[in-house]
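Let us practice reading a record.
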Amino acid sequence: MSALPTLEHDDVAAVQRCEQAYNRIRDEISKSVVGQNEVIEQVLVAIFAGGHALLEGVPGLAKTLLVNSLAQALRLSFKRVQFTPDLMPSDVTGTDVIQENLATGAREYKFLPGPLFANMILADEINRTPPKTQAAMLEAMQERQISVGGTIHGLPAPFFVLATQNPLEQEGTYPLPEAQLDRFFFKLVVGYSTRAELATIIDRTTRGVEVTPAKVMDGPEILRWQKLIREVVLAPHVQDYIVRLTMATHPESPLAFPATNKYLRWGASPRGAQTLALASKMRALLSGRFNVSF
């Protein structure tokens, strides 16, 4: 695989290759997922920017199918975790077990990694597990590592979590803590399909025809694109716009709007500003630009 050009040496080629890579993945996902173009775009923006995404929608809107299709289009290790009320932290992180050394006969601890040790994690119905297990995801999502038995285990790179949750059912669910919500790059609301999309879905799914997305990208290439995004120019006046936009959500701040002071108790954290900056850099590349604009 050829070396990735940087914005300093080959601006046009770098942007074109980024757009081509994005279009290839989007086209492969569209083979199995009908519609949801905006959600697909935002999921890909989150992945290219190195973030996690939370998909919220009623059952049957292809949230899980979208993630499965994305995993098939990428040459990455993939694990699915079905979150349930009885799921324990060790069920997702892994645990130390005692094993006998056949050579010496001595007993020793050996770490058995859990499903978090993969590039892509589908956390299905993440709000159905209690806070103790949800907290086990925090370190993994923020630090890309987990701590078990006093030992730190690094997670593979790239690493991202795509979680789903159902907004309808409240019985047997646990609202995600604010600290965990803050770790998600995007919260994406998956809506209903249009009339034409529903007709296409019926045609594809009731005639016994299965379409499998082709693999078009691997982990090292994703890491290179994540590095390239950070080279996109963010001019001081545009960066200040992101700062002012973030501070406008802070009640009683000098930049707060009257509606902010009336309806909001807490504003966006610095991660919100970081998300705006990285996502706007990715959108700039997809628009054929080398710098972020308003």
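A brief commentary: The CA atoms of residues 251 and 259 lie 9 Å apart.
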